[in-house]
Amino acid sequence: MMMKLITVFLLGLSLCSTGLARRQGDEAAARKPVEAFYAAFNEGFTGAADFATEDWAHINPNGGWTRGRETVLKEVRDAHATFLKGVTEAIAQMEVRFASPDVAVVTVTSTMSTFTMSGVKRENQQNIRTFVVVKRKGRWLVMQDQNTFIASLR
Questions:
Q1: pLDDT given at position 151
Q2: Residue 23 and which of 1, 59, 113, 114 are 20 to 30 A apart at CA?
Q3: How many CA atoms lie within 13 A of 15 on its CB side?
Q4: Global pTM value
């Protein structure tokens, strides 16, 4: 009887650790398209956006809502060719929460290098961005992002 209990306990422990390892692997995989987004941001979105779905939707800090990967790329490339030219953004914190095995919400806080927008110089602009990432055909991809400037507490 004791041997059966030990076997059941060890089997349960093994299943729990396997589940934890899988969840950690899924979290790392869900982070990758978000990290690729920031790498693309820092390069002015000049390359392919293979981190995003074809139906990618982007909500910018001014409330503009752009839909479709090619349309979003045109918008962000235009921004990076003008007021965001040479601007970089560094991830400060990232949190991944799973809505289902194939959908995660990734929240990122970040800091941008200095830029001027609408006549306002922004130095060390902090942002909070929410990404919806989805697993399609075995790959995690950004389906939607929304960026919000963090108001200063002055």
A1: 83
A2: 59
A3: 6
A4: 0.83
